[in-house]
Design goal:
Helix content is about 40%, strand content about 25%. Helix 8 runs parallel beside helix 9. The longest helix is centred in the C-terminal third of the chain and has 31 residues. It is globular, with a radius of gyration of 21 Å.
Length: about 350
């Protein structure tokens, strides 16, 4: 190990997983020292659908100021993305995918892909803080199931409030089918007018205002001693603990509206799922097999009674499980960081 690597090994690495879903931005921050997690903190911010809020921008930049080796990981939300059951890039055209238009990654005996334009859109979304690792939602879903996958053929779903990701998996690693649908455009939220006014207010903030806000945050942190790495680690941990979340308390009316929106989401999602299952069974490009059950990951606790509508429409058994998307994004971000570090690309 050369001197540069030896010194870098002693310094903390911070990986921030960011999930923007519907009206909230969820963040999990993990601090790594000598390849081990020494602290994990979570935070939630209110936002407009699809937007990284300024409060999250300030929070992330405050962390980056303390720890320069900070990396951000988030999901691709491009409508043009999916999976392909092949190990040969020459087969992409069979799936209607042009190699020159997408970025792809092989995982075991299959590929995930996303359009280059979609990746560019995600990077634009994070323009004020940057994003280091754009993670496929299919890769995230696979990380949830790969160690617990059953021998049968199942439909796995990651059900976020803005979109759903689906994979038909047989056994532990035979990926037969994938589909991705955006739900947000189908949902009419009650606060459209309020969101419009807020968006107009944000549009009125120019780059100098944003820079001044961030500089003010950094100025408040000017007394931190960055010379002592151990002390700096402790200071960052305390900073993360002391930072209070934006108020995410909902009024009774908001909760009622959210419940109504969840009914709409599930209703639209059930139609998408039924359509995807039909596509899997009838399109000859897929090695169709009988789907035994649906295993649905429910990160934001949509009511299980509401989700039963999916079982009624598809006539398949439904197993609902919890998960934390921003936490998984932080883990996958660290895996990506280690991959590029080994190749000396980071």
């Amino acid at each position: 190990m050369n001197l540069k690597k030896a010194i870098r090994y002693l310094l903390a690495t911070v990986v921030i997983g960011v999930e923007i879903d519907n009206r909230f931005c969820y963040i999990t921050t993990k601090i790594y020292k000598r390849a081990k997690v020494i602290e994990t903190q979570t935070k939630t911010f209110k936002t407009n659908p699809g937007e990284l809020p300024m409060s999250a921008v300030k929070y992330i930049n405050s962390i980056r100021f303390k720890k320069p080796f900070t990396y951000i990981s988030s999901l691709s939300t491009s409508i043009i993305q999916g999976v392909m059951d092949t190990t040969n890039e020459d087969d992409f055209i069979k799936y209607g995918v042009n190699v020159s238009d997408i970025e792809s990654k092989r995982i075991d005996d299959w590929f995930v892909y996303c359009s280059k334009e979609g990746i560019a859109e995600t990077k634009k979304q994070f323009l004020k803080v940057g994003v280091d690792f754009v993670i496929s939602p299919f890769a995230l879903l696979y990380s949830l199931i790969k160690n617990t996958a059953e021998d049968t053929c199942n439909l796995y779903i990651l059900f976020q409030k803005s979109n759903i990701t689906m994979m038909v998996v047989k056994g532990k690693n035979e990926i037969l089918f994938g589909a991705y649908y955006i739900l947000e455009s189908k949902i009419n939220l009650r606060d459209n007018t309020a969101k419009k006014h807020l968006s107009e207010d944000l549009d009125g903030i120019d780059e100098s205002d944003v820079t001044n806000d961030i500089n003010h945050e950094l100025y408040n942190l000017r007394d931190l001693d960055l010379a002592d790495e151990s002390d700096s680690d402790e200071e960052l941990i305390e900073f993360l603990k002391d930072e209070s979340d934006d108020s995410i308390e909902e009024s009774i009316n908001d909760n009622h509206q959210e419940s109504f929106d969840d009914f709409s989401r599930v209703s639209y999602a059930a139609k998408f799922i039924q359509s995807a299952v039909s596509e899997f069974y009838n399109n000859k490009i897929y090695k169709s097999d009988f789907i035994t059950q649906i295993i649905l990951f429910n990160p934001h606790e949509i009511d299980k009674e509401v989700l039963k509508h999916i079982a009624n429409v598809t006539m398949l058994d439904l197993d609902v499980r919890a998960c934390n998307v921003s936490d998984i994004l932080s883990n996958l971000g660290y895996e990506s960081y280690k991959f590029f570090e080994e190749k000396e690309m980071i």
